[in-house]
Design brief:
The complex is a heterodimer of chains A (121) and B (243). Chain A is mainly alpha-helical and 121 residues long. Chain A has helices spanning 2-22, 28-46, 49-58, 63-120. The radius of gyration of chain A is 27 Å and the shape is elongated. Chain B is of the alpha/beta class and 243 residues long. In chain B, helix 7 runs parallel beside helix 8. The longest helix of chain B has 20 residues, at 214-233. The N and C termini of chain B lie far apart (39 Å). The chains are: A mainly alpha (121), B alpha/beta (243). Chains A and B meet through helix 4 of A and strand 3 and helix 3 of B.
Chain lengths: 121, 243
């Protein structure tokens, strides 16, 4: 009976992800890993003994430790990918802003010259 | 002979008290150099002062901080095909007469980067104690990694040639603190660096970007780490070049 709560939670998250994709708030490629997460979550809440089965297969005496270890590894990889992406975007923002300020300067100089020549005429 | 185009790049952030004197100094002592001031989105009247004196002023659309403000200037230099760029600070530490000396050294030695050193010859510069320690430490680090003696790796007073301008101005090539780490990287890439003794003044007003207690410590630790990583990055590549 305990599991019903987690099953409902997993279903709500899956529905929310699909809702986000439909509203174009989430990229389809990015959503893959989240949907995978939710499906694993759903399987574990419907059939919790499968975790025990995997743990004995790997020789781990305390099954929840297996769950936590895998979760931490996946989260670590995801954070690393995100941080690389942020660094890339940061560099691009700097590049764009520099380019923009140079262009702004050039156009200001050009309009300044034009207004000067108009005055002379 | 084709006249060389030289651009002085001055990044300025809230330097309204100093920038006027710096620009007057350049007009007096180095009138044949072009000047561009990179106003790093200052909140005071820096931009107005620069524009009033008739000097080209590029305003960053948000605060990019020292290094990337310089990179804006370098990108401008690249777009206008300048042969040499001289990096100067807006706080009045660097003198225009010395900028000329840097440029002449660059022409004479044909090196890619010329650094104005405070310590090469004793020209009466008294710097704070901790800064001296930091400089010594990074100078030794540069010598350890590249076997070249650079006495003032923290000097922001440099004259760089076109090849280096091209390299610095491409995306992702300019670090947040362009000091010892950048010197090591350029030396390991085969660029030539020479030093020339220059006079410098202590800043007249306002706070340095390395002020306080926490910032210098953080700076030292991260820079030390970055220097080591850069050295490791070039270990294999350097061997390949020697073979």
């Amino acid at each position: 009976m305990n599991n019903i709560f987690f099953i409902i939670l997993a279903l709500i998250i899956i529905i929310y992800i699909f809702y986000s994709i439909r509203k174009n708030k989430l990229d389809v490629a990015n959503s893959f890993i989240w949907i995978l997460f939710c499906i694993i979550f759903l399987i574990l809440s419907i059939w919790p003994t499968c975790l025990d089965w995997f743990a004995t297969l790997l020789g781990i005496t305390y099954p929840p430790a297996l769950f936590l270890t895998i979760a931490i590894i996946i989260l670590f990889i995801m954070i690393f990918v995100q941080s690389k992406k942020i660094e890339d975007l940061h560099q691009k923002v700097i590049d764009l802003s520099q380019e923009l300020s140079i262009l702004k300067n050039k156009s200001a100089k050009k309009s300044h010259k034009e207004s000067n020549s108009e005055k002379k005429q | 002979m084709n006249r060389q185009k030289v651009l002085i790049i001055i990044p300025a952030y809230n330097e309204a008290n100093n920038i006027g004197a710096v620009l007057a100094d350049i007009k007096k002592h180095a009138p044949d150099f072009d000047v561009v001031v990179i106003d790093d989105h200052s909140t005071d009247t820096t931009k107005e002062i620069v524009q009033a004196s008739g000097i080209n002023c590029i305003t960053n659309i948000f605060n990019l901080r020292y290094a990337w403000a310089i990179q804006t200037g370098l990108k401008y230099a690249k777009s206008q095909n300048y042969n040499y760029a001289i990096l100067m600070d807006a706080d009045g530490q660097h003198l225009a007469s010395e900028a000329k000396k840097l440029y002449q050294t660059a022409l004479k030695t044909k090196s890619n980067i010329v650094i104005g050193s405070r310590y090469l010859k004793n020209l009466g510069y008294h710097c704070p104690f901790f800064r001296k320690i930091g400089t010594k430490f990074f100078a030794n680090l540069v010598r350890l990694f590249t076997k070249q003696k650079i006495t003032d790796p923290l000097s922001g007073f440099q004259c760089i040639d076109q090849k280096t301008i091209d390299y610095y101005s491409s995306c992702g090539n300019y670090p947040e603190y362009p000091d010892a780490n950048l010197i090591i990287e350029m030396l390991l890439q085969g660029y030539t660096i020479t030093e020339t003794p220059v006079k410098m003044k202590l800043r007249e007003s306002g706070a340095s970007m390395h002020s306080g207690l926490w910032k210098p410590i953080k700076y030292m630790v991260t820079q030390f780490f970055i220097c080591i990583v850069i050295f490791v990055k070039y270990v294999g590549k350097r061997k390949a070049k020697h073979e």
